[in-house]
């Protein structure tokens, strides 16, 4: 696997791939890779001749009080993991390569509606940063496929909307959440948890599971969500949100069947997200 740090080198490598008429799949990440990321690489490998991963801790999607500086940067271990997973090319640019001008002067992509509320509510500006970098990567790589995890459910919906609105000729592949044995969704941020917090963390998934069971059995949404919120607080979480939405992230109406429970909650300074899809009864 080759690691490329500069845009001209990336363009050159991709020109060769295109001349050969090969299909390209892109896996954008922020690095510190775990089995969730490697599942994205596997999904990419299934579909394309050439798999390109990117590692870039994107400053534009972090709020002023978020963990941009603390975010784990583990390039060597990531390179080994990607190579073993069958990745062909890694693009890992510097911030100054991606954003040669100050961030305030940078052209942005802003997706309306689906970015409102949930993580868009608790992390203002976050999704503009995500769509700007992902749109830029789509332009640089021009992949046939791009793979994203369902753990970041709203992010996936936002990217699908951007691709539709801006007519990117790219198939977006959603990959199911990879979990630890105790149910905790794998995340680079799990590494911030103390042993005590790590023992509590699976309660987020367990609570979503209990709520799903209740909602699928026809229990009323309001009291069920209120109970879940209280459970999370009792376990030691400070929830940012716990919501039931239609699967397309629109509001739940009496005719909604395919729905999703979404939560973001802090354990100490660590913000965890998770979601479970469900089918509401008639
Ligand atoms: N457990 C997981 N299962 C499936 N996909 C995942 C999982 N964790 C992350 N991904 C996906 O990997 C891609 C890169 O995510 P990212 O590098 O932010 O990893 P992360 O572990 O989610 O980190 P963070 O703690 O910053 O959320 C995204 O498409 C994300 O949805
Ligand atoms: C898609 C992404 C790589 C864009 O920086 C990031 O939001 C992530 O890791 O999910
Ligand atoms: N997994 C989405 C990247 C972020 O939290 O900024």
UniProtKB/TrEMBL annotation:
Its EC number is 6.3.2.1. It holds the Pfam family Pantoate_ligase. GO terms for molecular function: ligase activity. ATP binds at residues 30-37, 149-152, 178, 186-189. It is found in: Cytoplasm. Its main location: cytoplasm. Keywords: ATP-binding, Cytoplasm, Ligase, Nucleotide-binding, Pantothenate biosynthesis. The reaction proceeds by a bi uni uni bi ping pong mechanism. Belongs to the pantothenate synthetase family. NCBIfam families: panC. Homodimer. HAMAP family: PanC. Catalyzes the condensation of pantoate with beta-alanine in an ATP-dependent reaction via a pantoyl-adenylate intermediate. This is Pantothenate synthetase.
